[in-house]
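Q: Can I see a sequence and its folded structure?
A: Here is a first one.
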Amino acid sequence: MEQQTQRRTKRKSDNNKYSKDAMSDMRHSLLRRDALSAAKEVLYHLDIYFSSQLQNASVPNVEKGTIELVEEFIFHVPKERNVQPKRLNSLQELQLLEIMCSYFQEQSKDAVRQIIFSTLFSPQGNKADDSRLAMLGKLVSMAVAVCRVPILECAASWLQRTHAVYCVRLARVLVDDYCSLVPMSIQTLKQIFSASPRFCCQFITAVTALYDLSTDDLIPPHDLLEMIVDWIFEDPRLTLVTFLNTPIVANLPLGCLELTPLAGLVRWCVESPLSYKRNRKPSLSNGHGASSKLSSEGVGEGEGEVDSQQPLYSKLHLSVLQILMMVQVHLAEKDLYGCFGLLMFEHVVQLVEELSRLVEELNPLNTARETELSLDRLAQSLQVAMASGALLCSREDLRPLCSRLPHNNLLQLVLSGPVQQPAPHAALPPGFYPHIHTPPLSYPALPVHPAHPALPVHPTHSALPAHPTHSAHPTHPAQTFLPGMAFPYRPIR
């Protein structure tokens, strides 16, 4: 047994030595090439290397030397400090992006595509990450423009397993390219809805993480908001694509995006009335006519923007409620009902804290209507999420949390009832709510009265004698109905 172990250790050591020697020879060969030719050669090497590894193992081993070749000859981060890095000019960079697009489109094996994409663009926590993410943004943006579905699918997997900080950076690049730089280019981004729903789902999740409405700069652009609302309204299941196609593990990776964009979408719907009210809050003027005029014009433009945005958020809120209602079926299919929530209680805590802070910030303004709308949407979202099993918490958990919010009739009703059916009716389907309400929060429950003793049974009486029949009374003439006459109503004074 010891001899076999020694032979395996020696064989592994020899393979590592051969691999290091091969990497060293390849590096010296690449140094003699121009930048574009060297990058193409590294891609060719990665294809042969991982195709060979996947024939022997389902999970290939990515060696450090391979990562170093990628960083040095594709992202141009020199291995040695004294070596001047080779830089690609704009034309060469475009040619390299076209080569990558063609490679990922022509590679027929998805496993090889995924591992090479991960090797190229997974952050390593070093100085090459900036170049890596810049190249990734340009490649995905090009894939959107020319509709390269294999690259979009690889990008969807990357967004699912990478830290949210990097995912937000990629989302920012795509939003800048298709919502800011070129007018009407949002139509190109809209077209990927049918091409890659998985990428669209991950993109929506990253966008809701990026635009969290915390400041005026983090409110989603109108074109982007309209596109996402249209996507979700047309197919609400789009937001559940990642959840439905991902095996659920006990511990999800820390720091990654959520499985669904539901938490971010609920935040958008609930906070948007107050966030846009804060966005158009007029600045204080010094009393001069010009300043007052500019301030009033700014408020007018802000009100027009709010009026155009709020119907979109109302449409989005309806779609979110529909999604929460269909979640129950999918949780039951995965045998996760009652033990896995797509909306975490921590999300609700953060949402209530942000909503409370917004209400306090805008208290001097006339925000009664916006506050009522935000609280109504919060109450509806909580009610449907708890009923469908998407949110695993009790009303006892929510009452102290929501006590800091202003009074709202619908929210008060949701927090006070209805109650779950008692144990004798446990066979009822999950989420069933009988038409029974607990008392309001401010009134104690009425005490149960003791049962009264049964009354004694009375004896039966003898039958009374029959009365004699009377002669028929003369008939009175029937009163005719006049539909045009008013009823003679006299109010009590």
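Q: Show me another, different protein.
A: A second, unrelated one:
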Amino acid sequence: LSSGINAEYGDSEFAVNASKTLAAMSPIALCIAHRTQLLSRSLNFTECLRLECQIAGPTFALGEFAEGVRALLVEKDNNPRWNPGTLEEVTEEMVDAVFAGDASWQPL
């Protein structure tokens, strides 16, 4: 991710800050967000809402949100223990599992 930002924005202050911010985030959450952005390009608004509803539960069940809250607000150690810990450890299968649910039950 950082290499893409640096390719687009060079060594600008924006690029440096964006890279630092992304490096602190949950690796699997970044992959889920990226997949969501790619998928939503071809969806209308209602379909985007359905997609968000579809992935909300599985994403929350990963525990990354709770870990972020623990690290930033509860213990305030600013040292989240993400699982997996790096982008390289995130597999396609992990991300696929989040998107595997059926959102057809959504009343949208």
